[in-house]
Amino acid sequence: MENSWRKIRARCLRIVLGLVWLWLLGLLSAAPALAIGQTVNYSHGNLNNHDFSHQDLTGGVFVEAEMRGANESRCQSDAGNFDKRGAASR
Fold first, then answer.
1. Which of 12-16, 51-55, 62-66, 81-85 has the weakest average pLDDT?
2. What's the burial of 82, exposed, middle or buried (CB within 10 Å: 0-12/13-18/19+)?
3. What is the Rg, in whole angstroms, of the alpha carbon atoms belonging to the chain?
4. Are 71 and 51 in contact (CB under 8 A)?
5. Are 48 and 68 spatial neighbours (Cβ–Cβ below 8 Å)?
6. Cα 62 to Cα 12: distance, rounded to the nearest angstrom
7. What integer pLDDT is reported at residue 90 of this predicted model?
8. For residues 38-73, b (16+ Cβ closer than 10 Å) or e, as one string?
């Protein structure tokens, strides 16, 4: 009879440990939160002579984008995501 109880306790312990492991796995592999709003990513793109006039570029990413001759007149932008090549046109 004691051997039977020992098997039941061992089985319950395995189930509990398995559930705890699955719970921890779910916590560790949680996906990052999605950003609210829309962002446009032009990183490493060729935007030479592109017309951005009168466009809302707030939140856009232009890291290392080629932007020589791009028309950025009257565009709305936070200017925080321009970097390296092409940034000199700002």
1. 81-85
2. buried
3. 27
4. yes
5. yes
6. 56
7. 44
8. eeeebeebebeebebeeeebbebbbbebbbeebebe
Q: Is 25 helix (H, G, I), strand (E, B) or coil?
A: helix
Q: Largest alpha-carbon pair distance within the chain? A: 87
| Token code pair at residue 26 | 């779910």
Query: Looking at the chain, how many residues does it have?
Result: 90
Residue with tokens 């921890």: 24
**Which residues, including other chains, have CB under 8 Å from residue 37's CB and lie 6 or more apart?**
59
pLDDT digits (tens, 9 = 90+) for 56-70: 877 777 778 888 888
Q: Which two tokens stand for residue 82?
A: 């321009």
